[in-house]
Amino acid sequence: MAEAARQANEPAPAAASSMAAASPSHGTVPATAGAPLLLVERLSRRFPVAGRRGSWLHAVDDVSFELRPGESLGLVGESGCGKSTLVRLLARLLDTSDGRIVFAGQDLAAVPAARFAARAERAHIQMVFQDPTDSLNPRFTARETIGEPCRLLAGMDRSATDARVDEVAAQVGLPPELLSRFPHQLSGGQKARVGIARALAPRPRLLILDEPTAALDVSVQAVVLQLLDRLRRELGLTTLFVSHDLNVVRLLTDRVAVMYLGRIVEIGDSAHVFESPAHPYTQALLSAIPGHGPRIRLAGEVSSPVDPPPQVCRFASRCPHVHDRCSREAPALQGGPQAEPGHLAACHVARFGARWPLPVLVAD
User: Fold this and answer.
1) CA-based nearest residue to 58, from 116, 28, 99, 109
2) Pairing between strand 106-107 and 98-103?
3) Confidence band (pLDDT; 50, 70, 90) for 48?
4) Which runs of consecutive H residues, i.e. helices, occur in the chain?
5) Which residue has the higher pLDDT, 220 or 357?
6) How many angstroms separate the CA atoms of 99 and 103, rounded?
């Protein structure tokens, strides 16, 4: 009830109307102005396949990108493309197989995930999880949940912790009377605010948002998304935003990266990627948004991520523009003569600056 009342008093964000309407990354990293806060270079994570000795599943494969201070990067792609594995690597919840994760000048990939919690950088990289219910300790009150990282990561005493909890609760719009409640006594929107407050409590420099509104009702999603956007702007946060809602990504991020079978196949400013997608997979993905033209149904089978041939394009088995070169030479993530600065695509026939002609496929 409290959350519903709050929604009635808050203006509807731009994302709300959007949600109602739409209910190999192995090139060089593009140069940008200023030193990046996060630099990811040729990052990979492979998992052994049970029952198949010597076989490996390539969940994240040769991924490179950078994130500047204060920037918001969206990460999109089908389920199973490697988004969740990538954010777990970046949050240092999972060890890498290869590559570097350079945060504020230090390579965090060299630190085992099991030991990262004891390092100072843990406070600087925080995560808002997909399900606010599962990510909260049912034995902790909201105050205890928000205060825990203050004690463990920032070394605050009880007085400083209480003051910080009150401060961050006010920032996320959580009334003081709710801080003594346990998760089962809170609404979905209130639990989401507790999760956001917990992530903000140690004053992180990088905030990873792993589909933070996916488990919420649509009406609550809009309010929480508006809150996250406001906090990012007010606090100058650098954010990595993972979502299946393409309209939300378009509205709330500065740049977007598109993943397919463990690799980034296109990256660039959100406006450029959404208006002029250069990769055929990106175009097919965006066609799912009402108003983006006829729905593109991709033919063919998804290639296996287990021991994929390194010389073959991952998208070749489904691409309507495939040709011989695609099976002989995996395309690098690169720009082109008509590309906007920083707009890269991993495709031999990528067309920048203009929409692709729609392939003759089954359309809705």
Assistant:
1) 99
2) antiparallel
3) very high
4) 2-9, 14-21, 83-90, 113-116, 121-124, 142-152, 158-171, 188-200, 218-235, 246-252, 270-275, 280-286, 325-328
5) 220
6) 13
CA atoms within a 13 Å half-sphere pointing along the CA-CB vector of 108? 29
Query: Given a cut of 80, is residue 170 above it in pLDDT?
Result: yes
Residue 39 · residue 29 · CB < 8 Å: yes
What phi and psi, each to the nearest 5 degrees, are found at residue 272?
-65, -45
Full 3-state SS string of 258-304: EEECCEEEEEEEHHHHHHCCCCHHHHHHHCCCCCCCCCCCCCCCCCC
Look at residue 216 in the predicted model and tell me its pLDDT.
87
Q: Is the pLDDT of residue 5 over 70?
A: no
Between the CA of residue 357 and those of 40, 82, 340, 354, what are the distances in Å?
33, 28, 20, 9
354: confidence class by pLDDT, cuts 50, 70, 90:
low
Report residue 332 CA to chain centroid gap.
Answer: 22
Residue 28: how many other CB atoms lie within 10 Å: 11
Which residues pair with residue 127 across a beta bridge? 208
Tell me the residue type at 31: A
Lowest mean pLDDT among 6-10, 178-182, 211-215, 338-342: 6-10
Model pLDDT for residues 84-127, shown as the tens digit of each residue:
999 999 999 999 999 999 999 999 999 999 999 888 899 999 99
Radius of gyration of the chain (CA): 21
Distant-in-sequence, close-in-space partners of 251: CB < 8 Å, separation ≥ 6: 14, 15, 18
Distance, CA of 25 to chain centre? 16
- Show contacts of 242-245: CB within 8 Å, 24+ apart: 242/74, 242/75, 242/76, 242/83, 242/84, 242/87, 242/208, 242/209, 242/210, 242/211, 243/74, 243/75, 243/76, 243/209, 243/211, 243/214, 244/76, 244/79, 244/211, 244/214, 245/18, 245/19, 245/22
Give dist(CA 274, CA 292) in Å, integer.
9
Give the mean pLDDT of the chain: 87
The pair of structure tokens assigned to 61 is 């494969």
Q: Give the model's pLDDT for residue 358.
A: 41
Distance (Å, whole) CA 100 – CA 81: 20
The dihedrals phi and psi of 322, each to the nearest 5 degrees, come to: -65, 145
* Alpha-carbon span 129 to 142, nearest angstrom: 16
